[in-house]
Amino acid sequence: MTSLRFPATPYSEREHAIHSAIGITRAQKKRTSRAKSARDGNIALEDDVMIRTRYAPQGQAETRPVKRHPFTMIELLLVLVILGTLAAIVVPKFAGRSEQARVTAAQTEISGVELALDAFEVDNGYYPKGKDGLADLYYEPSDATNWRGPYLKKPITNDPWKRPYIYECPGTHNEHGFDLMSVGPDGRVGGDDDIINWVEK
Fold it and tell me: What range does the domain containing 148 cover?
């Protein structure tokens, strides 16, 4: 029995090439689709992070921890040097202003006591006598005949440096009146910082 053989189709190689091309095209499409999906997924993930960060409650935004380095010994010493320099510049200025304020307060207080002594003299005909005479401006002396005090709102005590005022009557410099002074910041009589009620000659 003779077997039948059909002649080869002249387009089989062409069809095979077409099917192969179609298979390659489909594979490329799958890879392209997968890449696109991955890219879209990354974009969506980034958008989600941005949205959550933007609209998260204050203090709850996602942040990366920042590593902080401690100060070195040199940096600490530098800060101490800067602070010491500033203190050396600023403190003397404030101290000088404070001292000037005390001087002004002593001058003002001496002027007020002078007015009170003049008022005492007008009423009684004389200035208080002795080194403790300033007490007579607030407390009535036993020998006063026309005392109308007190001539001060409060007893005169010490100057702004917590030292007593020096009062003399009759005065060495004001022979027909009285001498009144504060020894000033240095605390000794005869210094350049004495605050006095007479004019130096």
Answer: 100-196
Q: What Rg, from alpha-carbon coordinates, does the chain have? A: 52
Q: What domain count does the chain have?
A: 2
The overall pTM is greater than 0.70: no
Determine contact, residues 114/180, Cβ cutoff 8 Å: yes
In a domain, 162, yes or no: yes
Strands 179-182 and 195-196: antiparallel
- Residues 57 and 127: their CA atoms lie apart, in Å, by 81
Shared-domain flag, residues 44 and 125: no
* 9 belongs to a structural domain: no
Q: How many residues does the chain have?
A: 201
Residue 85 included in any domain: no
Instruction: List CB contacts of 172: < 8 A, sequence separation 6 or more.
Output: 179
pLDDT one-digit tens code per residue, 57-103: 555 555 566 666 677 877 777 787 788 777 776 666 666 678 888 99
Helices (H), the chain: 12-55, 73-124
Strands of the 195-196 sheet, one edge to the other:
166-168, 179-182, 195-196
Other beta carbons less than 10 A from residue 174's beta carbon: 17
Would 72 be classed as within a structural domain? no
Cα separation, 127 vs 168, in Å, equals 10
